[in-house]
Each structure stands twice: as structure tokens, then as C-alpha cells.
Specification:
Helix content is 34%, strand content 13%. The mean pLDDT is 94. A hairpin with a 2-residue loop joins strand 8 and strand 9. The protein has a domain of 170 residues: NADH Oxidase (3-Layer(aba) Sandwich). The protein contains twelve helices and ten strands. The protein is globular and about 65 Å long. The termini are far apart. The protein is an alpha+beta fold.
Length: 308
């Protein structure tokens, strides 16, 4: 490695920290050989449910060089979203990641600043920012660069910080110093498998997306299948069960990102408030939230399904 590579790598990691990212790891932009057969098997078994988009761009998902010309490095970043306060216990639940401003906007802005800083410091660097909106296997890249390991619930877990964080990437045409993967620390623990209300974790490290409460309440656009009646554990948008029970999440600390603070009304509303939700309140409480993805009608469908 030349001294510039080291200098550039240190600069990027320091800048990421300055922008509030929890951690930053870097991998060589290459074909994900281990992931290829796994992804193919998962898709062939129909674990993606109605998420047809998962079948598109198969090659791009496995090779970042098809997304960014002459890509050399994948810079993986984690951003904490663990809240300091949670909802009224007498209310249908929303996944913690969706409490505040939609993470896509928050992270995209940070990545834009990071890429501009790299270009100012180093010169002409080509690259693209990704926040789970393109065919990038973000957990695989984060694990490859040592930011954590993929747990039995198929989430990225980190010893010091648990799993309540977003994952994003900058893929750049700049060679950097690469980090190596860490080891798996799930051991014989099966807390997530035992706790999943819909038995969506069909075997350690394999989640059947079509059974996952997050899929049923967000991705699925038609009616929720009746087989899930009474199994939704009061979740109306997303689900955190497999993260809440994970022993590594006892180390989660509250985030410091002002944009992730929820609308105070969201925390106060009880079951009755949610059942009487109007389009107007929905628009106010979820003004810039990821919950808008399911739309007012979708959230209403989910609330009704819980109470039927």
C-alpha cells in the first residue's frame, strides 16, 4: 500500500465519524462469490414473497463494478437510529427505524457531503451513494468490511452497538485500504428464532420474507393473509421483535441525530387514537416519515387487521 492510500483511508473514516456515522468499513469492490449461491437459493425458494424487484439485476446485486464504472472500493457506513423514548405501550407498534424523518433523505445528504469531501481532499473521484434503494447487498458488504456479522435473524449485528442502525454505501473508483470480516458471535443463542411471532426465521440465518411482519405490513400491497390473524404481536408498521430480544442489543445507545426524533404525538397516541386516525393526522404525524410508504390506506388496513 502506498502512503496516499493509507492517508485517504484515514481521511474517509475520520470524515464519516465527523458526520455522525457509527462506524465505517471498507472492502474491495469485487464479485460477492459466497453470496451468489445463497441469493439464488433464497429466490428460487420464493422467500422474497411478492417482492419481485429482488429478482431484478441479479448480477448487479453481486458485483458493484456493474453499478459504478471502474469501482475499486465499497465504503460501508452505519448510522444509529435507536430512540431514547418509545411509543405509548397501549398502542399498535411502529418499527423504531420509522419514528423520525425518512432515513433515505437523512443518509443521502450525509453521503453527498462525504463524497464531496473526498473529491475536495483527493481530487477526481467517481462514485455513487446507495441507501437500500438500489440493488446492493448492503449487509453482505458491511460484514465483509468488519462492521459486524450477519446474525441468525439475517440482520447485521455488532458487538459494541447491537443492530439498531441503518446501513449505507459509497462505491468509489478509488483504491483504499481494506478491512477484513469479523467473526460470528451468535453462538448457540436462538432468542430471535424462538421469539419471531410468525416463525419467519425458517432456519438459522434464513428469513422467509413472505412471513415476516415487516413484509406483511409494508411491502405487501394486497390483503394480509388470514393465517397471520392473531400473530402480528400488535405491529402496524414493521417489526422489531428479533432485534428487541437479541442479547447484543443491550448495548444499544440512543442516537444523536435530531432528524430521527419522532413527532411527540406519535409517542403519545393510544389504541383509540390510532383506530380513529384521519388522513390529516396521518399527514401531520408522518410528514417526512418512512411510514408514508404504506400510505394512509395501508396503515389503516394494518390497524384493522390487528383488531379484527
Amino acid at each position: 500500500m502506498n502512503s496516499n492510500t493509507t492517508k485517504y483511508t484515514q481521511f474517509i473514516k475520520a470524515k464519516a465519524k465527523e458526520l455522525g456515522f457509527l462506524s465505517c468499513g471498507i472492502s474491495k469492490a469485487d464479485f460477492l462469490e459466497e453470496e451468489a449461491p445463497r441469493l439464488e437459493k433464497w429466490l428460487n425458494e420464493g422467500r422474497n414473497g411478492k417482492m419481485q424487484y429482488m429478482e431484478n439485476h441479479f448480477d448487479k446485486r453481486l458485483d458493484p463494478r456493474l453499478l459504478v464504472d471502474d469501482a475499486k472500493s465499497v465504503i460501508s457506513l452505519l448510522l444509529n437510529y435507536y430512540p431514547s423514548e418509545t411509543q405509548n405501550p397501549n398502542a399498535p407498534k411502529i418499527s423504531k427505524y420509522a419514528y423520525g424523518t425518512d432515513y433515505h433523505f437523512v443518509i443521502k445528504d450525509k453521503l453527498k457531503i462525504l463524497l464531496e469531501a473526498i473529491q475536495e481532499e483527493i481530487g477526481e473521484v467517481g462514485g455513487r451513494a446507495f441507501v437500500d434503494s438500489a440493488p446492493v447487498l448492503d449487509k453482505a458488504w458491511a460484514a465483509k468490511s468488519g462492521l459486524g456479522w450477519i446474525g441468525k435473524n439475517a440482520n447485521l449485528l455488532a458487538k459494541q452497538t447491537g443492530s439498531f442502525f441503518f446501513i449505507a454505501e459509497l462505491i468509489v473508483d478509488l483504491p483504499l485500504e481494506y478491512d477484513g470480516p469479523t467473526t460470528d458471535h451468535c453462538g448457540s443463542c436462538t432468542a430471535c428464532i424462538d421469539a419471531c411471532p410468525t416463525q419467519a426465521i425458517v432456519e438459522p440465518y434464513v428469513v422467509d420474507g413472505s412471513k415476516c411482519i415487516s413484509y406483511l405490513t409494508i411491502e405487501l400491497k394486497e390483503n394480509i393473509p388470514t393465517e397471520f390473524k392473531g400473530k402480528m404481536d400488535d405491529w402496524m408498521f414493521g417489526c422489531d421483535v428479533c432485534q428487541d430480544v437479541c442479547p447484543w442489543n443491550r448495548f444499544s445507545k440512543a442516537h444523536t441525530e435530531p432528524l430521527f426524533h419522532p413527532n411527540p404525538e406519535l409517542l403519545e397516541m393510544d389504541y383509540k387514537d390510532w383506530q380513529e386516525l384521519t388522513q390529516e393526522t396521518f399527514s401531520k404525524v408522518f410528514k417526512k416519515s418512512a411510514v408514508k410508504r404504506t400510505k394512509f390506506a395501508g396503515l389503516n388496513r394494518n390497524i384493522k387487521f390487528l383488531k379484527e
